[in-house]
Amino acid sequence: KKIHRLLHSGQRSPEQVIQELGKVAPIRLVCQLMDYPRSSYYAWLHREPRIDRELLAQVDLVRRIHQSHRGSCGSRKMARELTNRGLPVGRYRARTLMRRAGVRARQHRRHKYHSLGPQALTAPNVLERQFNPEAPNQVWAGDITYIPTQQGWLYLAIVVDLFARRIVGWAHSHEGDAWLAVRALRGALKQRRPNGRLLFHSDQGRQYTSHAMAEILRDNGITQSMSRKGNCWDNAVVERVFATLKGEWLYSKYPTRQEAAADIEQFVDWYNHRRLHSANGLVPPALCEEQVA
Q: Which one GO biological process term can you cite for this protein (predicted)?
């Protein structure tokens, strides 16, 4: 009766039925009762495992995406990357594929705020955490961080357009002085050439309270805004960019400043053109700007 029930359940093959009944009776007896060749059962039992080539291709694609983004993609961004490459999946399927591939997203390291020295020329907090302007070139924000190398620190200053979170200016140097911040802003002005009212926000670090910074802002008709003293959340967008840089891109330590600088150049291109940004609906900053142009 049990043999009949298992065979006609429509869910098991004869070999699977024999395997199940073999737990309580000799295989030889089960095969005789089912009139099934014992050699055929053992051939099935020792068969080569079936290879799911489609699944292997999907897992390989996940590994390649993971590697190209330096391990920064979580399940949500992995799902979007896979969909963009012709494999429409949801977040949970992407998570399953990531587990099969043995990959996981890098964890962000907390960015610490440091006071950089005495103030000179401060400005009020005009921005007031209004981080979502209506168009490009309305609000920019800047900050400075540092990257360890075996030769010493490499300092990096960036300027971010808050509309699409795009990095529009950057400069690096072995010195984190006011001219570093000025060079980053000059680069942004040269690249973007804003022609309307522009607000530039930063913290109260000595690079941004300098006379050199005040002069370039004044000469270009840019309104200056500053975070409250010691409050990194007032400049949260740029802090987040640095968290992405350090948590998703940079290696632990570079042999030379030159190698670190070259990797930063690659990061800017990746961040602007390839990284899926949650503030843009998982669209890279450059593409987000193109969509509203």
A: DNA integration
